[in-house]
């Protein structure tokens, strides 16, 4: 029995240090969220899930309104923490840390999460959705790093190079036969 997961990476959101959870979409990001909704106009969606972060929820909110569905938030689907709360590591260092973390799943910057620890918290939610919503079409509001880490669990071709080419927003259709990932198709951009 096929289950479809649409992983919707959030639209553009201006970075604000210390506001990972609450920062929303930019005006451009809100316009992109409306365009994302158009992609789903003819698709029958049965369930919607999201990271609890505002930008992920806002990106799929118009879909929920269009379909008359509620969005269930899962704390375990939050974006990966790359560093401790007081650290202000530069982008170049974070970029290299992300690269290294796909080669060594136990690597993490001090105070941050390894790819393996992210898989350990997020995959039970994905497995539960695949079991409880079997045969359904599900939309998940997500983030680039955790989306790639989840996909990497099912197919190691989805690693750093894949992550590095994703856009904001981005949509991937994952087709599962029971709990086996059969196909991945990029829907957006």
TrEMBL record:
Gene Ontology molecular function: any one: phosphatase activity
Q: Quote a single Gene Ontology cellular component term.
A: cytoplasm
Q: What is this protein called?
A: Phosphoglycerate mutase
What Pfam families does the record tag this protein with? His_Phos_1
């Amino acid at each position: 029995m096929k289950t479809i997961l649409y992983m919707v990476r959030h639209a553009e959101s201006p970075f604000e240090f210390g506001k990972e959870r609450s920062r929303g979409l930019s005006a451009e990001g809100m316009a992109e969220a409306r365009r994302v909704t158009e992609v789903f106009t003819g698709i029958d969606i049965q369930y919607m899930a999201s990271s609890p972060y505002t930008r992920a929820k806002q990106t799929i909110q118009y879909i929920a309104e269009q379909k008359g569905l509620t969005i269930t938030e899962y704390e375990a689907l939050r974006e990966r923490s790359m560093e401790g709360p007081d650290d202000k590591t530069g982008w170049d260092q974070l970029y290299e840390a992300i690269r290294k973390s796909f080669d060594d799943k136990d690597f993490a910057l001090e105070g941050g999460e390894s790819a393996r620890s992210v898989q350990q918290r997020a995959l039970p939610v994905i497995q539960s959705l695949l079991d409880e919503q079997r045969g359904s079409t599900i939309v998940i509001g997500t983030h680039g790093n955790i989306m790639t880490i989840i996909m990497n669990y099912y197919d190691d071709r989805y690693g750093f190079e894949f992550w590095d080419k994703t856009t904001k927003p981005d949509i991937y259709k994952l087709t599962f036969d029971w709990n086996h990932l059969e196909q991945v198709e990029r829907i957006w951009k």
